[in-house]
Amino acid sequence: MDRSLDHPLRTTLVNELHARPSPRIHAPCHAIYLAFKEPGGTAGRDRARDIGHLQALADRHGAPKPTLGDSHYSATLGRHRVIWESHTEFVSYTALAEGVPRQPFDPNLAAIFAEDWQRDALGKRVTAVMIRVEHLPEDLSQVDDSLAEWFSKDSLAACWVLERSALVASDFRIDPDGWMRFAVFVRDSVGSGRTGRIIQRLCEIETYRAMSMLGLGRARDLSSRLNALEPELAAMVEDMEDGPAEGTLQQLLSVASRLEALATQSAFRFGATRAYEAIVNDRIRALREDRFQENQLFSEFMIRRYDPAMRTVRSTEGRLGRMLERTGRAAELLRTRVEVDRSTQNQQVLQSMDRRAELQLRLQHTVEGLSVVAISYYALGLLGYVLAPVAKSLGVDKMLLMAAAVPVVLLLAWTGLKRLKAAIDHS
Fold it and tell me: Partner of 54 at 20 to 30 A CA spacing, among 124, 164, 279, 391?
C-alpha cells in the first residue's frame, strides 16, 4: 500500500487510541500512584522539565532513558513496573508490583518515589493513591473486618463491580502518611487484564475528581469577587433613569471590563472542570456497580459529596455569565439613552440655528429697507444739484421738483437692489 496516500495525521491519530493501555497484573498485587500538576496554568508548562524529572527517576534505578517527545513511558524499576503518562495539565506515575505487604498500605512501599525526588518535581502533588489488591475470601465477614480496620466508617464506599467479579472500597480520605487508600478484592477467576483495568479506573477516578475540584477553589474566589461587583452593578442599573447617562456608562463599562477579565481568567478552569467531571462519571459507570451489603456505592458517594461541588462550579459560572449579560443589556440601554440625549441636543442646536437664521433674515430685510432709504437720500442729494438750474429756468421752486422726484428715486433704488439680490442668488 502506498502510504503517501494517507492523511498526514492518520498514524498519529490511530496511535492515540493506544497511547495509554491498561496494565496487566495478577492478584495479589499493589499499586502506588502519583499525579503532579503545576500550580499555575498550562500555557507555560515546561515538558522538557517533566521529562527531566522522569529521567532522574529512571537514572536512580538504571532504567532506559525516555525521549523528549514521549507522552507515555513504561519501564521496570527494581521490583516495580513504573508507567509515566503526560496529560494536558498533569503528569502521572504508576508503580505496580505483585504481592502485598504484611502491613496493609505500608508507606514504605512508596520508597520508589523518594521524597527528595518528589520535591524536584515541576508541579505539586494533586493525587497520591495506594491500591491493595487481594483475592476475595470465601468468608465475606473477613472483608468486613478489613474494611472496618482500613477505612473510616462514616465515608466508606464499597461495592461489587464488573458483574460481581471484584469488590472495591475506599473512604476517599487522606491517611496520616498522605495517601488515599483503595482496596480491591478480586475473585480467583479474574485475569490480569481485568485487574489492571480496575486499578487504572480507580486511579483515573481519583485523579480526575481532584482535578475537577480545582474548579471549586476558583469558583469560591470568583464568588467573593462577584459579591463585591453585584451591588455596584445593581446600584448603577437603578440609577440609570435619573443619573447622568455618560458618567454611568463609563462606570458600567469599567464593571464590564472587570467581569470580562474574570471570565477570561476562569474560562479554561471551568471548561476543564466540566470535562474532568464527565470523565469521573464515565469511569464510575464503567465499573458497573452492584451494592455490597449496606454500603454506599461510589456513585452514591459522589452524588452526596462530589456533585454539590460541581453544581457550585456550574452555578458560579452561570452567575458570571448572567452578570455579563445584565451588564451588556444595561450598557446597550445607556448607549441608546446617550444617543437619544445627543439627538435631542442636536435638535435643539438646529432649532437655535433656525431661529438665528430667521433673525438674520429679518435683519437683512431691515438693512435692505434702510439701504433703499440711504441710497435714495444720497441720490436725491445729487439730483438736487442737477434740478437747480432746471428749476430756475422754469421759474419753479427746486424743492417742489425734488419732492416730485422722491417716489421715482425710491422706486428705482428698490428695483435696483432687488435685481442685484436676484443676480447674487442665481450666481
Answer: 279
- Spatial separation of the C-alpha atoms in residues 146 and 183, rounded to whole Å: 9
Asked if residue 176 has a cis previous peptide bond (ω within 30° of 0), the answer is no
Closest CA to 167 of 304, 279, 287: 287
Grid cell 500555557 is found at 43
C-alpha cell at 224: 467573593
Helix residue spans in 45-121 (DSSP H): 47-61, 115-119
Exposure letters 53-63 (e unless 16+ CB within 10 A, then b): bbbebbeeeeb
In a domain, 65, yes or no: yes
Q: For 355, what's the count of Cα atoms within 13 Å in the CB-facing half-sphere?
A: 5
- Asked which of 319, 348, 377 is the last residue of a domain, the reply is 348
Q: Based on the fold, state whether residues 273 and 330 are members of the same structural domain.
A: yes
E strands, 342-416, are none
Domain that holds residue 382: 353-426
The answer to whether position 4 is within a domain reads no
How far apart (Å, rounded) are the C-alpha atoms in residues 170 and 15?
34
386 contact partners, CB below 8 Å, separation of at least 6: none
| 3-state class (DSSP) for residue 55 | helix
Give the N- to C-terminal CA distance of the chain in Å, as an integer.
87
Show the CA angle centred on residue 182, arms to residues 38 and 53, nearest 5°.
Answer: 30
Strands 124-135 and 180-186: parallel
pLDDT tens digits in sequence order for the chain, 427 residues long: 777 777 887 777 776 666 677 899 999 999 999 999 987 766 556 778 888 899 999 998 888 888 766 788 899 998 999 999 988 889 999 999 999 999 999 999 899 999 999 998 888 999 999 999 999 999 999 999 999 999 999 999 999 999 999 999 999 999 999 999 999 999 999 999 999 999 999 999 999 999 999 999 999 999 999 998 888 888 777 776 666 666 777 777 888 888 899 998 899 999 999 999 999 999 999 999 999 999 999 999 999 889 999 999 999 999 999 988 888 888 787 777 777 777 877 888 888 888 887 887 777 767 666 777 777 777 777 777 777 777 777 777 777 777 777 787 778 777 877 777 777 767 6
Q: Is residue 197 included in any domain, yes or no?
A: no
Q: Which region, left, alpha or beta, applies to residue 172 given φ > 0 means left and ψ of -120 to 50 means alpha?
A: left
